[in-house]
TrEMBL record:
Lineage, uppermost ranks: Bacteria, Bacillati, Bacillota, Bacilli, Bacillales
Keywords: Dioxygenase, Iron, Metal-binding, Oxidoreductase, Vitamin C
Cofactor: L-ascorbate
Domain Fe2OG dioxygenase intervals: 104-205
Highest taxon above the source species: Bacteria
Database matches in InterPro entries: Oxoglu/Fe-dep_dioxygenase_dom (IPR005123), P4HA-like (IPR045054), Pro_4_hyd_alph (IPR006620), Pro_4_hyd_alph_FE2OG_OXY (IPR044862)
PANTHER family in UniProt: PROLYL 4-HYDROXYLASE ALPHA SUBUNIT, TRANSMEMBRANE PROLYL 4-HYDROXYLASE
Pfam families registered for this protein in UniProt: 2OG-FeII_Oxy_3 (PF13640)
Protein name listed in UniProt: 2OG-Fe(II) oxygenase
Any one GO molecular-function label of the UniProt entry: iron ion binding
PROSITE patterns per record: FE2OG_OXY
């Protein structure tokens, strides 16, 4: 038998029960744990998130220098923590899914890609030394169907997830063996036709919110 490291999400079976919804796992890689989840958000939740975010988008900035960068050509915004009932409902559902308390959740991020926009290969965790409260897991939720392109691509695993409205990809990088964490390198591939909206939830190892 192969010995595997402990994962954050216990993903036995094909369903995860949250406070308000039962969500289906439709695909999975075991190590690092990557799961494709269907119907995480309803169609109207996706539409409302886009509507709420639309007028608040800014060209994406990366890293501490906050320079506009070619690594990310998409635009982004963050909702305030639980800023309205919908955001609170989604944060609660996603923290149930990710098996991490909402107090460890970063603000929910929205990304928008036009044709040609991309997010080049990166790790979601911070790689600099002595990061006190690093990220441990990610949920990327697709808010619309993309006509062509815009896959979330994991080059080291040669694995791609096609955007589908309401679906999500989950992955975690909290392994003792850093070689496993490094396999979560991923990119938002350029959008070829149409546009792409996603919502990203990152979780931290320790508490981040004091409510
Ligand atoms: O847009 C995507 O498919 C990936 C987004 C992403 O990597 C992120 O938000 O960290
Ligand atoms: Fe990412």
């Amino acid at each position: 038998m192969t010995i595997r490291e402990q994962t954050i999400v216990n993903s036995s079976g094909n369903k995860i029960v949250t406070a308000d919804k039962v969500i289906t796992i439709v695909g999975k890689i075991e190590e690092p744990l990557i799961m494709i989840l269907e119907n995480v958000l309803s169609s109207s939740e996706c539409d409302t998130l886009i509507d709420l975010a639309k007028d608040r988008m800014q060209r994406a900035k990366i890293g501490k220098s906050h320079l506009v960068s070619d690594i990310r050509t998409n635009s982004s915004m963050f909702f305030e923590e639980s800023e309205n009932e919908l955001i609170h409902t989604i944060e609660t559902r996603v923290s149930n899914l990710m098996n991490i308390p909402i107090s460890h959740a970063e603000p929910l991020q929205i990304l928008h890609y036009n044709v040609g926009d991309q997010y080049q290969s990166h790790f979601d965790y911070f790689t600099s030394a002595n990061v006190a409260n690093n990220r441990i897991s990610t949920m990327v939720m697709y808010l619309n169907d993309v006509e062509e392109g815009g896959e979330t691509h994991f080059p080291s695993l040669r694995f791609s997830v096609m955007p589908k409205k309401g679906s999500a990809v989950y992955f975690e990088y909290f392994y003792n063996d850093n070689r496993i964490n490094e396999l979560t390198l991923h990119a938002g591939q350029p959008v070829a036709v149409g546009e792409k909206w996603v919502a990203t939830q990152w979780m931290r190892r320790q508490r981040l919110r004091y409510l």
